[in-house]
Specification:
alpha/beta; single chain; 4-stranded parallel beta sheet; about 15% strand; about 110 residues; 4 strands
Length: about 110
Amino acid sequence: MKKIIVQRVYDKDVQGYRVLVDRLWPRGIKKEEVKFEEWNKDITPSNNLRKDYHDGKISYEDFSRAYEEELDKASELKDFVDRVKDKDLVLLTSVKDVDHSHIPVLINKIEEL
């Protein structure tokens, strides 16, 4: 990977291989308004894990550990990294608080591969 950039999906000027890494489609934006090469739901937190975290049933630390375990089991992540390894990668997300989201965990796992 040349570099990894995180950008909100609502930002219009995005350069690089753009991948939407949210399980749900972002609110308030039409699909034709977003420029992206792929929407990779397979490397996002499972619905149950995402819901438990957003509902406050688990802490960020527990969420991060559980998501890391999901990524360890996901063969799709290795395939994804192999596919984008020579590109500038732009992870598109709709989350407001990136530091307390799935993004840091995902970046760490990508960089490990």
